[in-house]
Design goal:
About 85% of the residues lie in helices and about 0% in strands. It is an all-alpha fold.
Length: about 70
């Protein structure tokens, strides 16, 4: 089981894995609380965009620091 996960993770690029993880986290967090379906969808979308923007900003910051 662990070997299959390692092989799957090794074949996927970082950006895709990051996007999938951001999607999973935003989807799970959007399920919490009492919201309508539309509010959950908006909240999940907002969290996903924020997660991806944070990753992009952080990667540029690291690029500027390390060159």
């Amino acid at each position: 089981m662990n070997r299959a996960i390692v092989l799957l993770a090794a074949s996927l690029p970082h950006l895709i894995v990051t996007a999938l993880l951001a999607l999973a986290i935003s989807g799970l967090i959007a399920l919490l609380g009492r919201r309508s379906r539309r509010e959950r969808l908006y909240h999940a979308g907002y969290l996903f965009v924020c997660c991806m923007a944070t990753v992009v900003a952080g990667s540029w910051f690291m690029y500027l620091i390390h060159g």
